[in-house]
Design brief:
The complex is a heterodimer.
Chain A lengths: L3 E9 L5 E10 L4 E5 L6 H9 L6 E6 L2 E2 L10 E4 L11 H11 L4 H15 L14 H13 L5 E5 L7 H18 L2 E5 L3 H7 L2 E6 L2 E6 L1 H6 L4 H6 L6 E9 L4 E5 L2 E5 L11 E6 L4 E2 L10 E11 L3 E8 L2 E8 L9 E6 L5 E3 L8
Parallel strand pairs in A: 3-8, 3-9, 6-7, 7-8
Antiparallel strand pairs in A: 1-2, 1-4, 4-5, 9-10, 11-12, 11-14, 12-13, 14-20, 15-19, 16-17, 16-19, 17-18
Chain B lengths: L2 H32 L4 H6 L9 H9 L6 H32 L5 H12 L3 H14 L7 H4 L6 H14 L2 H9 L4 H12 L1 H17 L2 H6 L8 H9 L8 H23 L14
Helix pairs in contact in B: 3-14, 4-8, 4-11, 5-8, 9-10, 11-14, 13-14
Classes of the chains: A alpha+beta, B mainly alpha.
The structure holds adenosine-5'-triphosphate and magnesium ion.
Magnesium ion (MG) binds next to helix 1 of chain A.
Amino acid sequence: MAGITFKNVVKTYDNGVTVVPDLNLEIKDKEFVVLVGPSGCGKSTTLRMIAGLESITDGELYIGDKLMNAVAPKNRNIAMVFQNYALYPHLSVYKNMTFALELAKVPKDEMKKKVQWAAEILGLEPYLDRKPKALSGGQRQRVALGRAMVRDPEVFLLDEPLSNLDAKLRTEMRSQISKLHKRLGTTFVYVTHDQTEAMTMGDRICVMKDGIVQQFDTPQNLYDHPCNLFVAGFIGSPQMNFIDAKVKKTSTGYALCFGDAEVAADRPELASYEGKTVVLGIRPEDLHAEPQFFGKGNVIDAYIDLDEMMGSESYLYLEYAGQKMIARVPARYAKRAEENIQLAIDTETIHLFDKETEKAI
Amino acid sequence: MDKKPSHARTVIAYIVLIILTFLCLFFFYILVINCTRSHQQIQAGFSFLPGSSFSKNFNSVIHDAKLPVLSGIKNSLIVSSCCAVLATYFSALTAYGLYAYDFKLKKPAFIFIMLILVMPTQVSAMGFINVITKMGMINTLYPLILPSVAAPAVFYFMYSYMQSSLPLELVEAARIDGSSEFHTFNRVVLPIMKPALAVQAIFAFVQNWNNYFIPALVLQENSKRTLPILIAMLRSADFLKFDMGKVYMLITIAIVPIIIVYIALSRYIVAGVALGGVKE
Ligand SMILES: Nc1ncnc2c1ncn2[C@@H]1O[C@H](COP(=O)(O)OP(=O)(O)OP(=O)(O)O)[C@@H](O)[C@H]1O
Ligand SMILES: [Mg+2]
C-alpha cells in the first residue's frame, strides 16, 4: 500500500527561487505515473522530494498514509534511478547492485539470484566484474536501472532512465520497465522528455510547466482533451496546429473562419465568443487528403513549403492564409513541396482554446 | 626546421633534471656511504666508496645503553602511524561534514578552521603544555597523538579534493539504498578519497616522524623519547665519545621507515578513482 500524495507542497531553494509553488497530486498505489514537461520545470525536484533528497518547504507529502516530510530517505523504502546514474565508482557492477541488498541483510545466494536476474534482463552479464569507469554511457545507465530493480521498494522513482540508450535498446527497455511494473506491482513515478515513453508507459501522465501541474490524466485523455494550449502543444508529435480563427454565427450553429475556410463547430459554448478570435487546434493527422473526407465546406487549399516523406506517411509543412500548419497524410495521397494540396479538416476532432486564458473552450 | 629547437630544449630539460636529481639524492648517498665508515674515515674527508664499518656502527647504535634506539623507533612508529590515521580520517570526516551538509554555522565553522591553520604551533605551546600537565599526560605519547585529530591543513586538502571529485549524487544514491550517514562516509566517501588519504597520510607520517619541538617539551624519560630527540641527544653528547659513524647510522635508520611508508602508500595515489560514477 503506497500511493503518494502531495498536499499544497511548496519547494523554495536556498537561493530564494520557488521551483514548485503549490503542488497537489494524488498518485495511486501500483500506478505508473509519468511526469513530463519542458527542461527546468521541476520534474527532478518533485521526484527528489518524494525520495526525501530535497526538503519540503511547505505542505505535506504522504507515502501510503504516512506523513513523510521529516522521514530520512533511507527509511522511505524507495528505489531511485538518477538522471546522471550516480554509480559507486569504486565498486564493480555486481557490488553496485548489491550495495543496498547487503545493507538490508539479504542472504548471499538470494542476492546473487537477484543480480543474475536483473543482469539478464538488462544485458549486463558480461560486465558484472567491471568498474563503472570501463562502461559506456548506455551500460552505466542500465547498471543504474539494475541497482533499483534488485530491490523491493514500495515506490520506484526513475529520472529519465533511458535518455542515453540507442533507439533499439530504448524500445526494449521500455517494455522491460513496463513488465517490471506489472511484475512488481509497485508504484512507479517516471520522469521523461520523451513523448513515446510517456504515452506508452504511463497509466496516467502529469504534464508540468514552471512547477505547476497543467493536467494529470490518462494518455488518451491528454491527447483527445488537452485542457489548455500548453498541453495541446506539448503532447503529440508533430505538434498540434494552432490557428487564429474568428467565430461567426451561422444558421446551424457557429463557424470558425480563417482565410477562405469556414469550419463548422456546433458548440453552444461559443456564444460568448461571437465575433471574437479563438485559437483553433487541429492535430496534423486531422488534416485529411483522403477523398472521403471532402465535401462539407471545410476544405482548404494549402501551399506545401516542405515535405518530409516518412515511408508510410508524409509530413507536409503548409502555408495557408498566412498561417503555418503541419499535416500528416498517407504517403499515397501526399504531394510534393511547392505544390498545392486540398485538405479537409475533420470537424469532429478540432480543439478550441480561449486566446486570452489559453484554456480549452 | 622545428625539430632542432625542440631537441635542444629536451637536452636542456634533461640536464636541469639530472642536476636537480643529483642535488636531491647526493645527500642521501653521502648519508648511506657515511654510515658504513668509521669516525676517523669520515673526518678524513669524503669518499664515494662505502667503508667497512657498517656492522660496527650498527652495533654501537643498537647497543648503546644510554640511547634506547629500539624503543625510540617503536615510539616514533606509534606516534607517526596514529597521527597519520587520525589526521586523515578525522580531517576527511570534518571536510565531509562541511561539504555534504547544509547548516547555519557552516561558513563560520569553515573560517574558524582556516584561522587555526595560520596559527603557529609555537604560539600555543605554553598553553598546551600547561593543559596536558594538568591532565596528567606529560611524559606520555598521548599529547603527541591526540591533537592530530584537528589538522586544518589536511582538512583543507580533503575539502578541495571533495569539491573536485565527490559528486553529492553518490551520497544521495547511498542514502536511498538505505545506508546510514556514517556507513555512507566509510563505504562510499572514503574509498573515493583514497588518493587524497594516501597523500596526506604520507605527509602526516613524515611530519610527525620528524617532529622535534613538541616531543622535546613533552617527553622527559629516555624510554618515552622519539627518534629525532635521540638523534639530537647523540649529537650533543660529550666530545670525547662523539662518533660520526654512529650519528650517520642512526639517521639512516631513521629514514628507512619513511621510505617504506612512502612506497606502501604511493600506490594508492592514482588519478581517476571517482571516474565513471556520474554523467558529467
Ligand atoms: N539546488 C538548487 N538550487 C537552486 N535552484 C535549483 C536547484 N536545483 C534545481 N534548481 C532549479 O529548479 C528548477 C527545476 O529544476 P529540475 O532539476 O527539477 O528541472 P527538471 O524538470 O528536472 O529539468 P530537466 O528536464 O532538465 O532535468 C530549475 O530552474 C533549476 O535551475
Ligand atoms: Mg531533471
